[in-house]
Amino acid sequence: MMKEISEEIEEIIIQALGHEARRTILKIISSSEKGALYTDLMIELGLSTGKLNYHLRKLEGLVEKNKERRYVLTPLGRQTMSILNSITQTISSDYENYVKTAQRAQRSTLHPIVKSFIYISMAFISVILFVWGFLTYIVVTEGGPFIVYVLLPILLSIGFAVLGWLVYALKKAPKCLKRFEKRWFGR
User: Which end of the chain is more exposed for a tag (fewer CB within 10 A), N or C?
Assistant: First the structure.
């Protein structure tokens, strides 16, 4: 029973610290003796009300409103802040290489299904490019309507651009793919 609670607490704290806006909210609230007003958080963070409400909902259990309608840290929120503070206090310049390695690893990993989707898309685009290239060859050698001379180079350019973006996505895993991955696979 105790192990389950500690695992749940770990998950809650990791989720809370997993987004920069939530870390900043916790820091703002903890830096004020009386707590922070909603408008203070909104101004400090520059977030819309919808986004701020979303992050505050994610922090429920770590922050709460007091009688003066100010957000204050709960005991679990104070523990979360002590963990966050201990992380920032113990950082030294020796960590720089480890941080770079971790950033590279986190940036370049994709869910296997997303990778498979990219490989299939690359194969599909390659086939389309081959067909368009063959059509271009036929039009150039046999002749064709003027519109085909205009359209085929445009289609080839678009196809190569899409293929290039897919290769880039596979190598670098840009943020849009990470958002897609998070939405569909919960990673």
Answer: N
Mean pLDDT of 107-134: 86
Residue 109 above 70 pLDDT?
no
Amino acid, res. 18: G
Structural domains in the chain (count): 2
pTM, whole model, 2 decimals? 0.57
Q: Which residue segment(s) compose the domain that 123 sits in? A: 102-185
- Which H or E run includes 22? helix 20-31
My answer on whether 85 and 150 are in the same domain is no
Same domain, 76 and 116: no
Q: Which residue has the higher pLDDT, 162 or 177?
A: 162
The CA–CA distances, whole Å, from 63 to 17, 42, 71, 77, 87 equal 13, 15, 6, 6, 20
In this structure, are residues 35 and 29 in contact, taking their beta carbons and an 8 Å threshold? Answer: yes
- What is the total residue count of the chain? 187
Higher pLDDT, 2 or 158: 158
